[in-house]
Amino acid sequence: xxxxxxxxxxxxxxxxxxxxxxxxxxxxxxxxxxxxxxxxxxxxxxxxxxxxxxxxxxxxxxxxxxxxxxxxxxxxxxxxxxxxxxxxxxxxxxxxxxxxxxxxxxxxxxxxxxxxxxxxxxxxxxxxxxxxxxxxxxxxxxxxxxxxxxxxxxxxxxxxxxxxxxxxxxxxxxxxxxxxxxxxxxxxxxxxxxxxxxxxxxxxxxxxxxxxxxxxxxxxxxxxxxxxxxxxxxxxxxxxxxxxxxxxxxxxxxxxxxxxxxxxxxxxxxxxxxxxxxxxxxxxxxxxxxxxxxxxxxxxxxxxxxxxxxxxxxxxxxxxxxxxxxxxxxxxxxxxxxxxxxxxxxxxxxxxxxxxxx
Length: 358
Ligand SMILES: [Zn+2]
Hints:
The protein is mainly α and 358 residues long. It has two domains: 109 residues, no CATH class; 237 residues, no CATH class. The chain is built from 15 helices and three strands. It has a three-stranded mixed beta sheet. α1 packs across α4, α9 packs across α10 and α11 packs antiparallel against α12. The longest helix is centred in the N-terminal third of the chain and has 24 residues. The chain is globular, with a radius of gyration of 22 Å. It binds zinc ion (ZN).
């Protein structure tokens, strides 16, 4: 690349930082002109380009990026750090370009209005309200669980192929009549991750590639977890960049679907967050609540826990640190802790004029 291009690209980096600083103060602009404007157009174009490819094109793109970086490091060492200024310029220019594309294609969604504001709901709730919501979830979970197994002590088996589960989740999105969320689901663009094994060790169930807008899921995780994972990644794909908001969307879409297996995945997913939050507020009460659950439900939780335990290693810790920092950089100051914030959305959403629809 010409040196002048490199210089311009490098100079563009601090300008982008300033621009993002301004956007952070003006979420309404982002909501109106990006999330409900430009993003709808650009994501449609990305889907048009990548949804028909049977494997994750974005994973190949990531692999290529890694190769380019390794090649750059190799060359820098081989030339014994000669032309170090040019090398530095190359690095900043590269970073600037990636940073720009990341935001243009998807990342600006991090600065949109918080979902509770769009939905017009509060995020405060009392312990009593949480208790009531959790009891409701437990009762519904037990009912669905009993319908799906021959005995309460058995876990629910998901005798589906991954493709079948995928289709069920697509249908759930298509059929969602949720008027508040108005989820504009149009294109199916969900792929198995080519990196599922390292992903398992790193403790990740899936991700969206902002450059191609493909959603990837880790196909090694237990099938019982797949519906909520797929729904979560599709939530990201639709422009809900933040973890807690994607979790909220995934809960609503699966819990309210007519398919019992999807409901069961969704109810137990939301319940886990509620129980964890309850545990922080009142450990004894939370234990009493857990005792009310059919024991087979706990078997499903255990299955997931055992899966992740089988893959624990130092990589998981490293990834948690990196991802925690990534979240902090991208406007989610609570980092990994914000995962439990989904409870605030759920409790308030279902309290204010909504009921879980069945
Ligand atoms: Zn996510």
